[in-house]
Structure formats: C-alpha cells, structure tokens
Amino acid sequence: MESFEKDFFAANRRRLLEILPDRSALLLTAASPKIRSWDSFYPFCQDKNFYYLTGYNNPSAAILFRKTGNNLTCTMFVILLTPLQIHWNGYLPGPEEVKEITGIDSVTSLENLNKQIGFTLSNVDYLYLDFQPVPPHSPLSETLQAVEEIRKTNPQVEIRRAHSLLAGLREIKHPLEIERIRKAIDVTHAGIDGLLNQLKPGSTEYELEACFNFELHKRRCFPAFQTIIASGANATVLHYSSLDRTLEKNELVLTDLGAEYQHYSADISRTFPVNRRFSKKQLAFYELVLEANERTISAVKPGISLLELNDITRTVLATGLKTLGLISDDKDINKFYTHGVAHSLGLDTHDIVSGNNKTLVPGMVLTIEPGLYIHENNLGIRIEDNILVTEEGHINLSAAIPKKPMEIEKWISDVQSR
To answer: Which H or E element spans position 195?
Structure first.
C-alpha cells in the first residue's frame, strides 16, 4: 500500500474518532468468505466499511475503536495461521506486517478480541455495530445474534447501529476515491467497446457479457455488480439477469454495467440498436430519455435534493410522453418510469448516504439514470452517467462515453469496422 493511501485510511480513522461520542466504542469485522455451494466459495469481497477504515483486503480480522474522554484507541485483530492452514488456503499477514500495511499501531491476534471487547464494554455506555435491522420473526444474521448476546450479558451498554456514523463519512469523496471512480469508468468504457464488437442479430446476451468481462479482466478488474444486458422485452425488467436471449434485428439492447477498480464502482447505462441504427420510433423515445438525462444532470449542484432531481426527470418524461401521445396526464408517467433517477456511488454501487432525500454537497458522487419501459412495445431505454458534485455545480465523470444517437451509431460502426 502506497504511503498516500495509508494516509487516506488513517485520516478516515481520525475522522471517525472525532465524531464517535464520548464513552462509546465501535466494532467492525472483515467480511467472511461466502459459500456458493457445499465447499465452493464465491470470490472474496471485503466489507466496504471495514476497508474504508483499514485498507485491508483479507478475511478473519476485526477493528475496535474506543473513546473515553481524551483516551482514543484503535486496535486491529488478525488471525494467526498455522503452517497447515497456510498450506491449504494461502498466507495471511500477521500483526507486525499488518501494522506496516495499514499504519495502525496496535495490531494483535484475533484470539484476544473477546477479552478486549469484555474490557471495553465495562468502560463505555454505547457500542456501535454494523448491522441491518430485520422484520419481526425473520432469521437473525450472525451480527444480530451477537447483538442479542451482548444485550443479555451487558444490559448497561446501549447497542447502536454504526450506519449513521459511517455514511456521514463515506458520502463525501476524497480525491483518491474520485480518481478510482474515474478509472472504474474508463475500464467500463473499454468493456462496452468490447461488447459492441459482438452486437448483432444472432448474438446472445451472455456473449456480450463475456466480451465485456474479457476487457475488464485484461485490466485486472471485475464487474462491480451483476451485469444487465437486456434485449427486446427483457429491457422492461429493471433487474433482468438471465442473459440467455438471442438478439434480434430491429430491437434495442439496454446495458447497465460497471467495473470495480480497487474497490470503487462505476455504474453506466447505455442503450444500443442491434442493427446499428435507431428506428424512427426508437429514436423518439431515446431522445426523450436523453433529454431527461441531460436536463437532470444540468440541475446537479450543491443544495439540490435527490427528490428534486427526480421531479425534474419525471416532468421531462411526462411532458414528452404527452407530446408523443402515450399519456394524457402527468401522473400516468408512473406506468413507464418506475425508479428513482439517482443514487450515491462509491465503494458500493448503491453507496450509503446519511438520509433518503439527501441534499447534495460538494464531493458527493451520484448517478443520473432516467429510463422509459414500454411493455406494449417491448422497449426499454436507460441512459446513466456518473456525476461529481463540485462547489460550482458538477462534473460528468462519464462524459467520454457516447450517448447521443448519432454518436451511438458511429460508435457501433467504428468498433465493428476495426
């Protein structure tokens, strides 16, 4: 890890300790490997909050913060592997190496965690844990089971969710984070280039996905989320994931995809004509979605809320659909536009924020993604860009990825004629 990266993670820890209430502690654990089936595992993905505070990308670790008066402590716990464990599963760094990797001064064996938690709970009034509430009678996650156990054994300590503390830190992006998002967008652009080379009648959605993934893997990246490549009627399903349909001429393909670069996500949507040219009807709807995309992006600035941005999108789409004769009342837009226009972007594709109707501030990164889904015409169109909020207004980080109709048609033609 470069020194400037260690400085970034160290600054995140200092900021956390600054906002942590007196006589409180926060405990986070690294992600655990997830079983795919029987003894086969999914590729490891680090817990984003844990990564944000440590820069550490291995399992079997924890970090404990404590604040009592002027006493601010941060201790990291890592597993000590036996030679046999290393033989089977590979090497993991020990405490001294983790100190060097993370810049955390206090690193010890994971075996000491329970004892340290016991000591901490006897000296604090609040313990923050990273858990998601569940409805009554739902199964409890491992974290929630731990919450219940702590409540039983330490009734004097109030258990609180860490979400509000961590979301408040993560929603404003550091220049290092913005640079990684930019690189994720660049890799995504290259991936779409590869995908377009296979765009033609008779290809399958999964072949397009394979071409996209190939370009990402060449650049040592992976998809940030499950890729959506939806042709024809499939494009009217927001989270379509089967990718098993054969493309037909005279239809559109909606793509919603993104690379993850060093833990940071891109999230781009573009819609393409299978046989290189938009039909007159497709073009009318496409240009309406593009107008909503551009008008909404132009409104992004500090002080505007996510709800206000969505209202702009809805107004543009409703006005256009009335002109096209598809609806007669603005409220009928709900039939054809069924999601919000924006979400935060960062370590998670749907990055955490500290409120549902967040007012934008400089340093936030968000998506703008209007869409229309017309089941009667087997037509789905979405155009999504990634936007940085600045003091003056905004920067479109994905502006280099073509989206105007003539640019789209030329892009496909250029890629396929190479």
So the answer is: helix 175-196
Residues 6+ apart with CB under 8 A from 78: 58, 60, 61, 92, 93, 94, 95, 98, 107, 108, 109, 110
For the stretch 193-241, pLDDT in tens is 999 999 999 999 999 999 999 999 999 999 999 999 999 999 999 999 9
pLDDT confidence of residue 149: 87
245 CB-near residues (< 8 Å, 6+ apart):
204, 205, 231, 232, 234
Contact 103, 22 (CB under 8 A): no
Phi, psi of 333 (to 5 degrees): -60, -25
> d(Cα 287, Cα 146) in Å, to the nearest integer?
52
What would the DSSP string read from start to end of 374-416? EGGGTEEEE-BEEEEE-SSSEEETTTTS--SHHHHHHHHHHHH
User: Is pLDDT above 80 for 142?
Assistant: no
- At 204, is the secondary structure helix, strand, or coil? strand
What count of other Cβ atoms lies within 10 Å of the Cβ of residue 133?
A: 8
Smallest CA-to-CA distance from 321 within 309, 307, 333, 311 is with: 333
d(CA 351, CA 319): 31
Q: Identify the CA nearest to 365 among candidates 205, 171, 193, 225.
A: 171
pTM reported for the whole predicted model = 0.96
386: its two tokens:
């990634």
- Of 263, 265, 268, the C-alpha closest to 195 is 268
pLDDT per residue as tens digits for the range 23-53: 999 999 999 999 999 999 999 999 999 999 9
Distance CA 9, CA 15 (A): 10
Dihedral-angle region of residue 354 (phi above 0 means left; psi in -120 to 50 means alpha; beta otherwise): alpha
Q: In the sheet that 252-257 helps form, which strands lie side by side, from edge to edge? A: 228-231, 252-257, 268-273
What are the C-alpha distances in Å from 400 to residues 53, 121, 274, 381?
32, 52, 22, 20
For the chain, give the number of residues: 418
Tokens at 202, concatenated: 């008779």
Domains annotated for the chain, with CATH where assigned, are 3-170 (3.40.350.10), 175-416 (3.90.230.10)
**Residue corresponding to tokens 């405490």:** 95
Q: Could you give the CA distance from residue 106 to residue 384 in angstroms, rounded to a whole number?
A: 43
CB 293 within 8 A of CB 368: yes
The token pair that represents 201 in the structure block: 């009648």
CB 12 within 8 A of CB 2: no
